[in-house]
């Protein structure tokens, strides 16, 4: 196949889904797919067999959930536009507001369009162990979620009778112990309000499918919480854990130049197609490669844009690289397609799915029209 392309392995995806299904079975919680991290909707027929629905970050993700997942849709945004409320309300099961002001402004309007809609508020426990401040939703001056102090404003309003759930999100690629600590802070600040609610959403960032994750601890935490609050429905909404280590980004070497070291220019881009390697940052694993100078031949892998910093990193190989060689970046399903751009006119990778029966299906190719039509 022509490179570059993303390739999803459905057998690996199903392994993750079975792990999540095990958590559901042992705790009776519901698990949603966070579309912000993984939204490859051509795989939804498989995902929807195991998970309960999707959490959306606005109108477009809610539409995708409604049209292609067709189970529960939970929609949250830091701020909603009035013109979107009607359509969002009609296709959502839960609608979560970020602030008391948004709740008071739009709750009645949303219920008017969908009387069965359950309304919630995102709260900020003001505690997190997020490893990177950029990804810390509970950091100082965070705009995400309502503090206990600001919640009191809503509780003084008649609108409070429409509030049925709390949502919090404080994790980032973390284990169950981090959830236990966050949950303690959450209950200390907001526990006294839970008796009047119907549900609590524990958000995302749970790295449940990562090797070494303590699933037994998670099961214990969830069951203990449910024993303290048996009337509450509990939700988790992982995104990265669904797509974790389920596929690759395959690229080709276009040229090799020398400037103090060997530099292999690829037909993909860290900036445009692997942005989290720069933003997080993290180093993507390359199949068959190691750290620089560990093996016989070391190369800097670089992208095909004019950005000087469009670099994946330095890797060593057993044999010299040749023009045309394939470079396979591991674990490139989550936070890649959802963030990819056509910066510099670099074409988006095709999307390939290796189905459960072993067949390869090219589900999407991108070309000039995709680049042109998003600009005007």
Draw up the topology in text.
Blueprint: E1 5-9, H1 10-27, E2 30-34, H2 44-47, E3 53-56, H3 59-69, E4 72-76, H4 82-91, E5 94-97, H5 100-113, E6 118-122, H6 148-155, E7 163-167, H7 176-190, E8 199-201, H8 215-228, E9 233-236, H9 240-243, E10 247-258, E11 262-266, H10 270-273, H11 276-279, E12 290-291, E13 297-302, E14 311-317, E15 326-329, E16 350-354, E17 360-364, H12 368-373
Helix pairs in contact: 3-4, 4-5, 5-6, 7-8
Describe this structure in words.
There is one protein chain. This protein is α/β, with parallel strands linked by helices. 30% of the residues lie in helices and 23% in strands. The chain folds into two domains: 10-243, Alpha-Beta Barrel (TIM Barrel), CATH 3.20.20; 247-332 and 340-373, Lyase, Ornithine Decarboxylase, Chain A, domain 1. It contains twelve helices and 17 strands. The strands form two sheets. Strands 1, 10, 11, 12, 13, 14, 15, 16 and 17 form a nine-stranded mixed β-sheet that branches. An eight-stranded parallel β-barrel has the order 2-3-4-5-6-7-8-9, surrounded by four helices. Helix 4 (82-91) crosses helix 5 (100-113) and helix 7 (176-190) packs parallel to helix 8 (215-228).
Number of strands: 17
Portion of residues within helices? 25-40%
Residue runs with pLDDT of under 50 for 5 or more positions: none
Helices and strands, in order, run as EHEHEHEHEHEHEHEHEHEEHHEEEEEEH
- Shape label: globular
